[in-house]
């Protein structure tokens, strides 16, 4: 009998031990990405986990599992259905918090109280600040020792996919369409699918396992642009600078101060877009500011960029000896722009989540995933839950049961796709 206080279904109960063991093993491997690297993958250590995944897939009998151009690639033959479906997760972890030497800690039958950390006594993980913890009472919560991130983003997705693949290999009668597996590097630094040959990959539909709350389907993301604003001043000796010097630092300061505060990440939520000055570098003679622009409406994003460009030009206009150069480059676009013409992709995920015993939650992502770029390149790829929470932080956590539900949802998903073409 399934313990319904701990697992949603008998299938999730069956998958729980495997997904737990895999996850704990995977997070101990340091795979942190480096946003300043010029290599791909940005860190060689990401391949340490990738090689292990290839070996495990081969041991399961997935004969074509391989490491190719930084990607773990594999495929399973379908029992029925003609639409090749792909599952994606990323092996890298965020550079936003310490990522080496992860010591996962399992809190079995979590009692619903605050979680404290012996290795970091000032750190507290509280249901008051992380309300999704309340739903985990009686379940098994995994967090770190409080000195590193956990790596649930996205090793929870990796573990869920690997657990589902093992189940499919052990149950050859279980229906599935032609199935492609891809574990990517460098998602956290925006390069996750930059070297992936989609024509050779061969899928028609994809899903990233890189979401949060159990039951969630995310088929809408920000559209994103990257902006670089470079102010050039005129340098003279400070002692003889009157009416001659144009200080680029002051121009940059005026520009940043003039950015509308009600359009900042820290003051926006939901579908509200923002302008975020992310870094600044230079001297009084020249300053470069890097910004990210976000909006769910691509037209509004373009208008936001136009307004910020005009603001920069307005700042420098009174100074004949000063100048500004502004460049805007596209990062990714709202996946909804493409997915709205293929509504069945999210609808089948919705039905799979229901079949797993969960309530589907249609959501948006205030950010981007590999799915954003995959969708833009022609492979429609919404994002599904893994149960990870408080990601990119020392408080990152996930529950075994949510990961088991994620693996169960994958199995229902592939079953439904196998029936789609009948």
Low-confidence parts: none
Specify the helix fraction band: 25-40%
Output mean pLDDT. Answer: 95
Main sheet attributes: strand count, strand direction, barrel closure:
8 strands, mixed
Assembly of the depicted chains:
single chain
For the record, the CATH class of the largest domain is Alpha Beta
Strand line-up of the largest beta sheet: 1-2-8-3-9-16-10-15
Structurally, the number of domains stands at 2
Shape: globular
Q: Please report the distance between the alpha carbons of the first and last residues.
A: 33 Å
Quantity of strands, as a count: 17
- CATH A-level architecture of the largest domain: 3-Layer(aba) Sandwich
Q: Concise description?
A:
It is built from 10 helices and 17 strands. With 422 residues, the protein is of the alpha+beta class.
Descriptors for this entry?
422 residues, alpha+beta, Aminopeptidase, eight-stranded mixed sheet, four-stranded antiparallel sheet, 17 strands
Structural account:
The protein contains ten helices and 17 strands. With 422 residues, it is α+β, with helices and mostly antiparallel strands. It folds into two domains: 299 residues, Aminopeptidase, CATH 3.40.630.10; 110 residues, Alpha-Beta Plaits. The chain has an eight-stranded mixed sheet with strand order 1-2-8-3-9-16-10-15, sandwiched between helices. The protein has a four-stranded antiparallel sheet with strand order 12-13-11-14. The protein is globular.
């Amino acid at each position: 009998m399934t313990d319904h206080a701990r697992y949603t279904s008998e299938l999730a109960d069956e998958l729980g031990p495997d997904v737990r063991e895999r996850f704990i093993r995977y997070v101990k491997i340091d795979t942190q990405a480096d946003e300043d690297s010029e290599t791909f993958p940005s860190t060689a250590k990401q391949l340490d986990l990738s090689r292990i995944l290839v070996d495990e897939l081969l041991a399961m009998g997935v004969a074509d599992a391989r490491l190719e151009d930084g990607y773990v690639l594999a495929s399973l033959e379908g029992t029925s259905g003609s639409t090749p479906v792909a599952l994606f997760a990323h092996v890298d972890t965020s550079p936003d918090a310490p990522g080496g030497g992860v010591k996962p800690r399992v809190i079995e039958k979590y009692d619903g109280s605050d979680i404290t950390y012996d290795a970091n006594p000032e750190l507290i993980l509280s249901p008051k600040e992380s309300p999704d913890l309340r739903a985990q009472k009686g379940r098994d919560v995994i967090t770190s020792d409080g000195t590193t991130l956990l790596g649930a983003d996205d090793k929870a997705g990796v573990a869920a996919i690997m657990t589902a693949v093992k189940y499919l290999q052990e149950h050859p009668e279980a229906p599935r369409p032609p199935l492609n597996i891809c574990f990517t590097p460098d998602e956290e630094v925006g390069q996750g699918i930059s070297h992936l040959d989609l024509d050779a990959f061969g899928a028609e539909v994809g899903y990233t396992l890189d979401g949060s709350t159990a039951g969630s389907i995310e088929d809408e993301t920000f559209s994103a642009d990257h902006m670089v604003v470079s102010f050039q001043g005129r340098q003279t000796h400070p002692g003889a600078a009157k009416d001659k010097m144009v200080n680029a630092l002051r121009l940059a300061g005026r520009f940043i101060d003039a950015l509308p505060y009600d359009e900042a990440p820290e003051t926006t939520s939901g579908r509200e877009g923002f302008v975020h000055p992310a870094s600044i570098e230079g001297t009084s003679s020249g300053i470069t500011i890097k910004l990210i622009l976000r909006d769910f409406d691509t037209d509004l994003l373009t208008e936001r960029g136009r307004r910020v460009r005009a603001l920069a030009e307005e700042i420098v206009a009174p100074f004949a000896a000063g100048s500004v150069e502004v460049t805007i480059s596209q990062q990714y676009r709202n996946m909804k722009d493409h997915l709205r013409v293929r509504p069945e992709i999210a609808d089948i995920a919705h039905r799979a989540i229901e079949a797993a015993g969960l309530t589907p939650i249609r959501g948006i992502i205030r950010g981007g995933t590999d799915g954003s770029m995959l969708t833009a390149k022609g492979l429609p790829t919404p994002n599904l839950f893994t149960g990870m929470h408080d990601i990119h932080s020392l408080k990152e956590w996930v529950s075994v049961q949510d990961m088991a539900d994620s693996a169960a949802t994958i199995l229902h998903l592939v079953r439904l796709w196998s029936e789609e073409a009948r």
